[in-house]
Amino acid sequence: MMRATAIALAILSAGAAFTLSAPPALAQAAPSEKLRIDKTRIDAVLKAMIADGRAAGTSALIWQDGREVYFGTAGMADRGAKRPMRRDTIAQIYSMTKPVTGVALMQLWEAGKFHLDDPLSKYLPEYANMRVYAGQDAASQPRYVAAERPITVRDILRHTAGFAYGTGPTPAHDAYVAADPLALSIPLAEASRRLAGVPLLFQPGTQWEYSIAVDVQAALVEKLSGRPFADYVRAHIFEPLKMTDTAWRQPDTKLPRFAAMNVKKDGKLVQQAAAEAQTLNFRDNALTPGGFGLASTLDDYQRFARMLVNKGELDGVRILKPSTVKLMATDQLDPAIAARAWLPGKGAVGFGFDFAVRKSPPQTPEENRGATGEFFWDGMASTLFWVDPANKLTAVFFVQTIPYDGTLHRDFRAAVYGPGYKGPAGD
Q: Which has the minimum average pLDDT: 20-34, 77-91, 187-201, 401-415?
């Protein structure tokens, strides 16, 4: 069974290679002209991804103005079994789990269970006395200093807590690897306790660094709700939204619908063996991570996205208040937070609560197409979704390609919007 630490490392390196996106304002101007979806153009791009060897199978589902405007597939879900990508194919979505966790935690915020700027230690006491790595002393030994302020709940929602997420150049990274806080054999509460013993990479609130923070969010959901994280999410998000194929633990009857995972080696995609492809089916593990591990279908995840574009409601069921969705999709990074790791590689973006948010139109021809005010996230296996309030559009793109390949996203977005699209201006 694959160790969760290895998974986290892969997630980190995948993100570092390409990037996320930044914060949007939801009160954006309307597009100068209505965006029209060109099915032929999108079909051609999905097929090209198969033809040039970047993907074994692709699929996409787009809704606009409250109706489905595109569905398409290309290639195989399982090349060995000659099983094509289908609408009901189940894909491993890795870090697209994170927005689900954020929604769960913000439901508890709406219920008055915490304040955003409360110290995390108020609810998870293990974080009360954090140390921060401060370089080396004259004898080349690592130095650690006390945190200048507590980690807040806001910090874990926006990746400014100072946590690591795998290997790296400092002794703090080494301590993270040794603690193995994402070991699949431990529950969330133990994962949190292990993490709290690891020094922070920087003073809380001073930098943006993609991290294990969303798994801490999941531990906080458990603590505040008094029930297992997966049970809370199922009862408060998946069942109300009728996301019947989304879970950390899938029954045996659904395993034949899983897409195989494909890993690029020496420039070619190699399909993993069936047993390896089901590594992230968490039935036999104690850990239910908040940052990865969900498997889902296009239609299920599209229901989640449609709830967000509808300001927290779908089919008469309210999941979040409109103001909460707006808060999550608004850039939460202070201008003084200049160190943002690889986030600028996502384009003209900032970061909200578990979403990257677009603040300005694309600045270069190479940047991903999109509209100011959109919010989105992606996954290690190159999956992607976004919510575009300006065009009343939601898109979900599935593929199972590792390492993360940002060129797939660039091409898919260009097919959706047109290669020259810039959309409404930012603030």
A: 20-34
